[in-house]
Specification:
Number of strands: 8
Order of helices and strands: EEEHEHEHEEEHH
Oligomer: single chain
Largest sheet: 5 strands, mixed
Strand order of the largest sheet: 3-2-1-4-5
Helix content: 25-40%
């Protein structure tokens, strides 16, 4: 039986899935493996986490990560996975995963509006004509970060109505603002 571990890593977190020995899907989440998080502390947590998941190191790893369209980032994360024991590692951008999920081997346009936002053309597993995806520092209007920032600003200046404040209070700890 060929075992495969899949990962989808965006700006906020990384979702993982694999089939166990009984054929059941097993899901788990980790912190974001986005390149902007890569520092000495991250790599320490990375190694520590995978020590607890050693049974997966023999699996083929298909990692789809934000920032991994950049070949230097893709090479670095592949090397890090290999350094802890993965031997068959395939790294692609999260844009490839999004494109494939919508269009398979066909052609079309994809829009992602998550922690970040990006628009691109997809054709036969190729990503081209990318608009956005530059991160919150350079823009990403339309992203979760962008709208979250707008809401916090409106809350701070007192321009949310009672219903909006009630919903916000249900979703977050306003005392932390």
């Amino acid at each position: 039986m060929h075992n495969t571990l899949f990962a989808d890593s965006g700006g906020t977190g990384t979702g993982w899935v694999y089939l166990d020995s009984n054929g059941n899907k097993v899901y788990f989440d980790t912190e974001s493996y986005h390149p902007s998080n890569w520092n000495e502390s991250f790599w320490f947590r990375f190694v520590s986490f995978w020590e607890s998941k050693r049974h997966l190191l023999g699996y083929t790893l298909n990692f789809y990560g934000a920032g991994c369209l950049n070949t230097d980032y893709a090479t670095l994360i592949r090397e890090k996975f290999e350094s802890i024991g993965f031997s068959n590692v395939k790294i692609k951008s999260d844009l490839h995963a999004a494109g494939y999920s919508v269009h398979k081997n066909g052609k079309g346009v994809v829009i992602i509006s998550g922690t970040g936002s990006v628009l691109f053309d997809y054709f036969d597993f190729h990503v081209t004509n990318i608009v956005g995806g530059k991160g919150h520092v350079l823009g990403d209007e339309g992203s979760g970060f962008y709208f979250g920032k707008l809401i916090i600003e409106k809350y701070r200046v007192g321009s949310l109505n009672d219903r909006q404040i009630s919903i916000l209070n249900e979703l977050s700890d306003l005392s932390r603002l």
